[in-house]
Structures are given as C-alpha cells and as structure tokens.
C-alpha cells in the first residue's frame, strides 16, 4: 500500500469516531513535535522574520502525519498578533512575517503547532523567545549595561568539514561563492546569511516539545491530507432535521476550490481542502431546497492553551546599541522604499485542474458571436443546456432528458468562478461580455455525497463575480489559508543592470530554505551589499536519520 493510501486509511479510521468524542475515546497514538528555526532572535519593525519548520516524530525523523502547521507570534500579554498557516511537505515547511510598525518594542514568543499536537494534554506546541525593537516608538526602555554584548559565534555543532569560501574578505556588491561539502548527510537544510551586530542575540531560547506517547482523547483530527475546515448548521425552524444536509464550500478565483460534504445527526460537517491557493475569501451554503431554514457557523481554527505560557526573557538594550539600531532602521527604510524593484516571487500552484476535468466540454465565448443576455448565450451557443423553472426559479437543465435523473429533479450544479449559484436570476442581468468561457459536463456527476444533474462552470474574465454576488443564505467569511511558497529575492549584479543605481542596504544577504543535499558538493552564489562589516553564514538542518546539523562561517565586507 502506498504512502498516500496509508494516510487516507488513517484519516478514514479517525473520521469514523470524529464528532463522537467522549471519555471512552482514549487511545495511544503516535505523537509529533515541531522544531522552528528563525533568521534572528532580535528584529526591528520593517524587517522580515524568516522561519523554517521541521515536523518530527518521536525518533526525530520527519513526520508524515500532518501537512499543515500553525505559527503564531504572541506578545507579553499572551495575545496573538500574527497567525500563519504553513504547508508541510514530508514534515518540512517555511514562511516569513514582515514585522509591522504597529508592534511595540518588547519580548515576544513564536509558537508553532499542528492540529494533531493539540490532542496532547501537555507539550503541545513549540515556543521560541525573540525581541522586537520599534525605533519609531517614542519611549524605549533602555537598560544601561556596561558589560560587552558582542555576539559570540558558536562552534560547529558537528564533526563535518567546514563550509568553504573563495576568500575571507569581499568588496561591496561582490559575488561570493559558498561551497558546501559533499560530506554533509542527506537531509533538509536552510541557509541564513546576515550581518553580525552588537545587539544581544540568543540562539538557545527555544523550547521544543518532547514527542512522547500519551493516552490521548481525540478531539481534533490530524490534517494529514490538507486543511480541515469544520462547522455546523443550526435550525431556524423548530423540529427541522439537521442530518444528511449537503453543504458546499467555495473559494472562488482563477484556481478555485469547490467542495461538498454532508452533515451528521448533530448538524456538524467537515471539509478537506487538498488544493493550494492563496485566496482566503470563503463561501459556505446549503445545497438544499429548504436552505433558508438553517444558519451556518464555521468553527474557529484550533489554538493551544496559552495560560501557562511564561515570559522569562528580558532583553538588555544599552545606550551603546542606539547607533546600531538607528543605522539598521535607516537601512531597512531604504530597502522598503525600493521594495517594488526587489520583490520575492510566488511559486504558482502546479496543479490548477478542477474536479470535473477532463470530462467537460468548454465554450470560449470569444470564438462565437456574442449575445447580449445570458439566456440568449445559453440558448444559442451551449447546445447541451436549456432553461426550466425549478421551485419557481429559472434554472439550467441538460437538454437531453435522459440525463436528468428521475429520482432527483434538481437542476445542474452551476459554478461561477467556483462559487455555487443556486439562483440563476443573479446571472440573467449579468454583462455576458465579461464571461470568458462556459464549460459543461453533460451527464450526471457524482461529487462528494451528491449526484448532480450535470455541471455548468462559468469563468469570468476578471474572476471576480463573487465580489458582486449577494445571497442571504450564503455565509461569506474569510478563512486562514497557507501562505504560498516563495523564491526570495537575490540580486545578481553580473547579469542585471537595472539594480546599478538602486541602493543595497541589506543586512540579511540570503535566506534560502528547503535545501536538499544528495552527497554532492554544492556551490551557492550570493552577493554582498553596500553595508560593510562582519557577516555570518549559518547552515542548519535535519538529516534523514534525525540528526541536527549546524555549520557556520564568517567573512568580512569592506
């Protein structure tokens, strides 16, 4: 049995007793833990905090249970100021957080967890201390400290050969060639290259949860095949049945998501989202004739109990740090001014196919004579469809009556940019020149718990129909979605003349997550900036056997 099938069987096993939680539902299940590494432990507003996540099992080998992790920034009042959902692939993920100027100077914690970890009664999240400094804050509590706060670079924490550079000193904007030796074990690593400063840093301020087997009460399912969205329906009319109601979820857009599910006897439902998009707007509705008799509520995303979270770290910022803070803040502001010329690149979704493909017939309307109204367009162009009233509302049916299922007189499933439309009146007055294409599945289609009498998928030119659509029976909300993967900006001065006149005030020269080594020497080039000083190269990661690796190298820019 393949890895995916094993995970599916595991999920189905858990679903069998989900929503039936009781004291008897205790079982011994394998646990997992998270290890999070960041590019720094002291950061200024206007800078970006980068992080790498490793999801590990009890032997510190990459876990294959969870595909979603949560990262939060917590202030000293135990309030979450940032929450991120990160995709995990084979137990590995990465992300970033731009530190806004609304955050005050102080001590913060980064916490990370998976849904599966929250079933543990203890040790259910990773925590790491770090400090945010807001140079624009009027009053920063400065502790006058006469002791030295020079950064002490730790020794290599492995017996591996050191990293190699072609020389020890470089000019500004000069190309550097970093050679990573082939003696490095196979695994996943990240590279962090940044300027060494006087601000005190703490590389040992993290607390990793210990992965031990506990007797757990299963309250939260593991997100083992993607994101899990749960909720429930409530009856507006007394004695209404909550069981077996079909609920649909739409995340509209270019690469839309459409899911269907069915409620249990208590009205609870669950969606599994296994497709990556960056859109957070979500539309949930009942695909039922009596939908107006019910209200829909989505559950909040799971979070750990922070009541026992303790802030013990104090940051010493002495008067001698002021100059460094001012210079670093100025450099950050200059870099942000030129952000448009130094943008990171988003990695597009590799599988944009929709659930009904390739069974559909597609009509690109620009290939036909345009008609003024939607009804004329359907009648004159889309030969598989016809209009007929359903529940006193004009609806779309398959023209071939053989495919209109006798047991279910409902019309076709109609999607516009992925949003289910149950009242076609919303389209009758829509400007058809804004419609790009109409795709039709001209036969019954089983999707989730329901058989639809055909599918009509309408795509608009701007993919924005949802922004003008209103329906009192549709719950419109915003859900937390995984951030899209990025390729972080790296200047290439040898090949690009566009950057010649643009200042380069980077303190963070390179952040490269998810590096995979396969027992070969690897050369990674990067460029120095306009900021002179000492820099540190840190290569950290986890081998396939669960061993933690940390290599470092320093160099100077003059």
Summarize the structure.
This is TonB-dependent Receptor Plug Domain. This protein has 558 residues and is mostly beta strands.
Task: Explain what you see.
Keywords: Signal. It comes from Flavobacterium nitrogenifigens. Residues 1-23 form the signal peptide. This is TonB-dependent Receptor Plug Domain. It is a single chain. This protein is mainly beta and 558 residues long. The chain has two domains: 3-212 and 304-347 and 487-557, Macroglobulin (MG2) domain (Immunoglobulin-like, Sandwich), CATH 2.60.40.1930; 227-301 and 350-478, no CATH class. 7% of the residues lie in helices and 37% in strands. β36 (533-543) and β37 form a beta hairpin. The radius of gyration is 28 Å and the shape is globular. It starts with a helix and ends with a strand. Mean pLDDT is 86; it is low at 1-26, 143-160 and 210-215.
Q: How are the SSEs ordered, and which strands pair?
A:
Blueprint: H1 3-15, E1 26-29, E2 33-38, E3 42-44, E4 48-56, E5 68-74, E6 80-87, E7 92-98, E8 106-113, E9 126-133, E10 164-165, E11 169-170, E12 175-180, E13 187-195, E14 206-207, E15 214-217, E16 227-235, E17 246-251, E18 257-262, E19 268-273, E20 281-286, E21 294-298, H2 322-337, E22 345-346, E23 361-364, H3 374-381, E24 385-390, E25 393-398, E26 413-416, E27 419-420, H4 425-428, E28 435-441, E29 445-447, E30 450-452, E31 455-460, E32 475-478, E33 486-487, E34 508-517, E35 522-527, E36 533-543, E37 548-557
Parallel strand pairs: 3-9, 11-37, 26-31
Antiparallel strand pairs: 1-15, 2-4, 4-7, 5-6, 5-8, 8-9, 9-14, 10-12, 12-35, 13-34, 13-36, 16-19, 16-21, 17-18, 17-20, 20-32, 22-33, 23-28, 24-25, 26-27, 28-31, 29-30, 36-37
